[in-house]
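Something for you to look into today, if you have time. Just paste the record in under my message, thanks.
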Amino acid sequence: MILVSACLAGVPCRMDGASKPVSAVVDLVTRGEAILVCPEVFGGLSTPRSPSELQPDGRVRNADGEDVSEQFYRGAELALKICRAYACTGAVLKSRSPSCGKGRIYDGSFTKTLIPGDGVFASLLQEAGIPVLTEEDEVSSILSGGQNL
């Protein structure tokens, strides 16, 4: 079983109320091989919501200046529990997200500046030994071939 960001499967849960479906992820869901999560929603944030960025100090703030760290970390913990409950072998998460981004995230200045780093949930998964990809990786060839992450 693969854990996937719900927005990549077509669920309109992004901060802007939209989704970003990826055909390989949608196919996984259709075949019953994926579990959908949205750590931000699991943490209690609404859809739509103010954009948030991970700050250099590890806190998460939204564009309105509110500290939403508690929601991000609580949602990440809950999503990790779901990952473990379903014995997921890997995850495909939304790139650049303050929750799900892997490798590159926004720098916390709300200027669309990318820096090396991982989102709250992506970090938690990797610390737990769960491999993480984003939709920007070659997921279609990996997932369509039935290979484990």
User: Anything to note?
Assistant: Residues 2-144 form one domain. The mean pLDDT is 94. Residues 69-85 form the longest helix (17 residues). The helical segments are 23-30, 39-42, 69-85, 120-127, 139-144.
